[in-house]
Amino acid sequence: MTERSPQAYGQPPRDGGLLTRLLEVDGLAVEFDTRKGPLRAVRGVSFHVEACETLAIVGESGSGKSVTAQALLGLVPSRARITAGSIAIEGRDVTGLSDAEWRELRGERIAMIFQDPLSALNPSLTVGYQIAEMFRRHRGTGRAQARRYAAELMAQVGIPDAARRLDDHPHRFSGGMRQRVMIAMALALDPVLLVADEPTTALDVTVQAQILRLLRQRREADRLGMIIISHDLGVVARVADRVAVMYAGQIVETGTVPEVYGRPAHPYTLGLMRAVPALRGTGSTLTAIEGQPPDLAEPPTGCSFHPRCPLARERCREEAPEPRELSHGRAVTCHFAEEVLDDA
Ligand SMILES: Nc1ncnc2c1ncn2[C@@H]1O[C@H](COP(=O)(O)OP(=O)(O)OP(=O)(O)O)[C@@H](O)[C@H]1O
Ligand SMILES: [Mg+2]
User: Fold this and answer.
1) In what order do the strands lie in the sheet with 324-327?
2) Is the N end or the C end of the chain the one with fewer CB atoms within 10 Å?
3) Where are the domains of the chain?
4) Whose CA is nearest to atom 25 of ligand 1?
5) Does residue 213 contact residue 158 with C-beta atoms inside 8 Å?
6) Which mutation among 28, 32, 115, 200 tests ligand 1's pocket best, with the greatest number of atoms within 8 A of CB?
7) What separation in Å is there between the alpha carbon of 13 and the centre of ligand 1?
């Protein structure tokens, strides 16, 4: 199998290995219009991703991970809108792009792997056709050549007998193979940034490990920046360099995986870590913190986590903490982070 190079598809080579900021999100806020009024799903989120780097976003169900991911690709649902903040992809502000401009950018610079490949693939078209279409539409590649590229890509993501499987429909593939097809489609146009929303959740442990290995390989080969969204702390530990912990639409803690896992600074993160007996292996999910996340239509006063926080006191109910830097690249949104650090 030959390694695909960007030049192979008529793209200029990437820079020579310097640190490159691929994504910069600053103060992003997303609201849904609901009957109860505005639901603030994402409330002032900031983070960045460099080339070759994998950032994980973790947090309980409903914390705003997917809505954040959708915003990065210009895919927020029609009932939602970005109300504040900015998103820059390779230095270009994309917050106000038109649908046509997004269609051009999506796939080319930033691509997404969806949790449920069956809903992202068209069931009535062959897999080969769907991949080849990407080259035809974006690159104007001829039919036969696009088909060759599709087969090459499928082989690269480890689909056996790729040339023959081009003509199969999605339902003919196993869950793991379908996820590989999704990865192939996401990588087809050589994006610089890949967003993977729960890419292994539906898969059994062995296949999960294969997919994670594949993503790591592609990151090395393509100098990809990646965002991996997961509620599985074991998965995150295996693939990510840095982690952002989300709670109720906000990032409450960021840092490198060893820092955050080894010495959490936010009571929520500490709770997550304690809820997981062993972070090695997979299947460890974020379910064991007492209480429920807040209703985002009516978030609590002060710190959003205070109703569930064992350290909460008067100040936490009254004053919302601002994110503050603990050390270089390490930030926390808690008035009493020092106590948590001591505890951990
Ligand atoms: N189409 C929608 N209409 C109204 N509210 C929505 C919609 N989609 C998401 N939300 C709300 O936005 C918030 C964030 O949802 P999001 O899907 O981003 O959570 P998540 O962190 O991805 O959760 P999960 O781990 O379950 O995937 C939730 O409170 C959710 O109820
Ligand atoms: Mg989600």
Assistant:
1) 110-113, 193-197, 225-230, 54-58, 242-247, 250-256, 330-332, 324-327
2) N
3) 21-109+195-204+228-343
4) 61
5) no
6) 32
7) 38
Task: List the residue whose alpha carbon is closest to atom 30 of ligand 1.
Answer: 62
Q: How high is the pLDDT of residue 154?
A: 93
Which among 31, 43, 63 is the best mutation to test ligand 1's pocket, defined by most ligand atoms within 8 Å of the CB?
63
Structure tokens at 236: 């995150």
User: Is residue 67 within 6 Å of ligand 1 at its C-beta?
Assistant: yes
Query: HSE on the CB side for 111, CA within 13 Å?
Result: 19
Neighbouring C-beta atoms of residue 161, cutoff 10 Å: 11
Condensed to tens digits (0 to 9), the pLDDT of residues 205-240 reads 888 888 888 888 888 888 899 999 998 888 898 899
Question: Which residue's CA is the closest to the ligand 1 atom numbered 7?
Answer: 32
Residue 328 corresponds to which tokens in the numbers above?
């270089």
Residue 221 tokens read as 């080969």
- Please state, in angstroms and rounded to a whole number, the distance separating the CA atoms of residues 135 and 133: 5
Give the pLDDT of residue 325. Answer: 95
Query: Is residue 58's pLDDT more than 90?
Result: yes
d(CA 210, CA 206): 6
Beta carbons within 10 angstroms of residue 168's beta carbon: 16
- Has residue 16 got a pLDDT over 90? no
CATH 1.10.1740.10 fits 21-109+195-204+228-343, yes or no: no
CA angle 324-245-176, nearest 5°?
Answer: 155
Q: Is the pLDDT of residue 116 over 50?
A: yes
Euclidean distance between CA atoms 24 and 49, whole angstroms:
7
The more confident residue out of 107 and 19 is 107
**Percentage of residues in the chain having pLDDT higher than 70:** 90
